[in-house]
Amino acid sequence: MERKLSVALILGANHSIRLLEVFSPLSENFDIKALGLLDEISSESYLTEIPLQTFIEDQHLPGYMLGVEDEIAKADVIVASGLLDASTYQAFRYAYHHQKPFLVFCQKEEELKQAILEKSEDFQDCINNASGFLIFDDSVAETLEFMGCAPEKILKLEPEIQAKKFGFHEKLRLKFRDYLKVESNDLLVVSPLSDDLAPFELMAAFKMLEALDKNLFERAKLLFIGNASNKDSVKYRAVDLGMTKSIMFIAQDIRPFFIDLMSAAELYVSMSEGQDATERLFTVLEGMACGVKVLIDGKHPIASVVDSSFVVTNPNTLALSLRDVLLNPIQRKDIIGLVEDHYTNNHMALALSEFLKTRISEKPIQLPLAGDFTHVMATLERTAKLSFEEFETALDIELGRWGSHSDYRGRLLVLKGQTLIQASLYEEAMSCFELCTAEESVQREAYLGLAKIALFTHSNEEALSFYRKALALKPNDAEAMGGIGSVYRKIGMADEAVYWLGKSISVDVENSRYLMALTQACLESEDHDRSISLLEQLKVLLGNKPSLVMCLGQLYFKVGDNQKGKELVDLALDLTAGAGKLMLLPTSTVA
């Protein structure tokens, strides 16, 4: 059975529920999982069919998900929403380093513009390297293209909803109207409270309704939902118009009881252009999926699909349109049927599926990241080789940028200490490494650096102590074990040296830097049998290394097996194409 391609959806603090709704129809063909911050996941996110895995926030990096890299590394493609979220850019960097295609779900044009201003460097990295962008709004596409995004990387999603999740519910209608204290024969009109003139224009039209049809006006109640900054101004205007008994407010998120509200309402008015265009579109569609009549302007994406009485063609005739739509006898089931016919076909799921497969099949772009820490370290290392003064200046700048995170700060200080050692500035290097060991996230390289300085200053016991501390941070660390073995050999403890040097090479067979020290320690050790056993094992792992084979030959001579010893010494000489090219080991006992 063919493995399903896996998709990781990143839900940051500003994530959109629309991301989950877009991907829900793909669950049969893709292995989809949502990854989000525990404290930032909306209650709606738990109600989707997509499995949700939560993470705690990294205490050093606000907005970062602790431990999310493993999940990103396992996914075939990563999709994030929330261009202002740190977790989006965290996921982008992990995807970049694991060479995974990374897509961005861009819903809000205002959020896009804010990201350009506030996260210019990170955002530009994302534009340059992201494999694709998913959008609903044409204006978002225009902004992305202006930023340098190739048009073929942008997929414009068509609005589709899962109508079966909504519908009209008589019991919910009665309960919610009872909660609002709205009479059974009253007409409930609902509209979002937005930070523009739309609420004031709607109230004025509502007041004009009194002159057009007094009976209709007395039955109608206007409910504003949301918590816009102009809420008090709207209330004062209601007092001026003498409409305090006709207007109500719900200043909270209505998503958890959206179906209840739309079942209770006769009309949903969406005339504000200040709202997010995508959210405005979906709220209207979902309201219609509950059977509620809507009143929209002529620019609305579904204006050409709905009944003409649902569309305000001239803002000056809003009161007339309000009257006409309230009197329109259209049945709820017909409105629901309209949505089902036009916006539940799952055509978009097919297009999105093909878009994902194309993005996965293409090798992700790997342009250098301006703000990437790995890139920062590589740049500093190059600078250190050219000019120590320039390196110090650059390092101070990066410490200012990355120093708040203990791990990054420690790695920068380690690099500084290593550079100071190269410059033979041992006291300064020691101070630098000691600072590292005081960090919350201790770098083992700091202890390795201190051990190296101790060896330079002939403090063998201190060197041994530092190597052991490094080993405690990373058990079976080849460099720490090799260092311990080298110190033991230096102080004349050959048997201990053989043990630690042998372990070091066994752990890291690709790194034979300690092989010469091991062969010398084996010849100095009195336990020839153990040395022979160890070298025979390493010979299997490393192959016929000349110095190893020569040492084995010498050890066989020492234990009296002259034939074996001669065979191995001859082999070592053959491997080096002549004894003149071989670095012969000291204390040779070849007869």
Describe the strand arrangement of the main beta sheet, using strand numbers: 3-2-1-4-5-6-7
Mean pLDDT across all residues, rounded? 87
How many DSSP E strands?
Answer: 13
Bin the helical content: 40-55%
The CATH superfamily label of the largest domain reads: Glycogen Phosphorylase B
CATH domain class of the largest domain: Alpha Beta
Please, what is the oligomeric state?
Answer: single chain
**N- to C-terminal distance:** 66 Å
Q: Would you tell me the structural class of the helices and strands?
A: alpha/beta
Q: What portion of the residues fall into strands of 2 or more residues? A: 5-15%
Rounded to the nearest angstrom, the radius of gyration is 36 Å
CATH architecture of the largest domain: 3-Layer(aba) Sandwich
Q: How many domains, in number, for the residues?
A: 3
Number of helices: 27
How would you describe the shape?
elongated
Low-confidence stretches: 578-591
Query: Major sheet, described briefly?
Result: 7 strands, parallel
- CATH topology label of the largest domain: Rossmann fold
List keywords for this structure.
Rossmann fold; seven-stranded parallel β-sheet; 591 residues; six-stranded parallel β-sheet; 3 domains; disordered C terminus; alpha/beta; 13 strands; 27 helices; Serine Threonine Protein Phosphatase 5, Tetratricopeptide repeat
